[in-house]
């Protein structure tokens, strides 16, 4: 646990929360300022700032939990779909610096717009970018 981290305290049960799921690695809670009805956050119990430092075991279990919760939301809340959002660093909208995955149920006319403005691409530039990322991945092996 990280001192002064609110999500460490919530995830480990030191601060009460509206918990929808808990296991040895995660707690899933309802967001305090929900974008839609049922907006939930998957919190690892261990502290990771964000995706840049999350460990492999936590990362690999994360979507198993997210999928479980998503199916339960569809069944219990009757959402038509849902968005998974995960913000990393301030530039990308992260405000709480303990890794968390947003699960946001979507309903007709829910007033939300969780999309981006599509850009344009050039095949040569795309190739260059893909190469750069690939090389960084290879260097990391
Ligand atoms: P992000 O902007 O991705 O870092 O998301 C942080 C989210 O945490 C926001 O949606 C907040 O509404 C939510 N949040 C902040 N504090 C609490 C809290 N004490 N309990 C539940 N959700 C919280
Ligand atoms: Zn933390």
Automatic annotation (TrEMBL):
Residues 6-113 form the HIT domain. Pfam families: HIT. GO terms for biological process: nucleotide metabolic process. A motif (Histidine triad motif) lies at residues 98-102. The active site is at 100 (tele-amp-histidine intermediate). InterPro entries: HINT, Histidine_triad_CS, Histidine_triad_HIT, HIT-like, HIT-like_sf. GO terms for molecular function: catalytic activity. This is HIT family protein. It comes from Candidatus Scybalocola faecigallinarum.
């Amino acid at each position: 646990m990280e001192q002064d981290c609110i999500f460490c305290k919530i995830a480990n049960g030191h601060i009460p929360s509206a918990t929808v799921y808990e296991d040895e690695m995660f707690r899933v809670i309802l967001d305090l300022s929900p974008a839609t009805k049922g907006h939930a956050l998957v919190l690892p119990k261990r502290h990771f700032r964000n995706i840049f430092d999350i460990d492999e075991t936590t990362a690999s279990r994360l979507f198993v939990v997210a999928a479980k919760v998503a199916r339960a939301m569809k069944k219990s809340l009757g959402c038509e779909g849902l968005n998974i959002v995960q913000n990393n660093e301030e530039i990308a909208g992260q405000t709480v610096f303990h890794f968390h995955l947003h699960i946001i149920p979507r309903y007709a006319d829910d007033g939300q717009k969780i999309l981006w403005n599509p850009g344009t691409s050039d095949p040569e530039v795309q190739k260059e970018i893909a190469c750069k990322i690939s090389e960084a991945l290879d260097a990391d092996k």
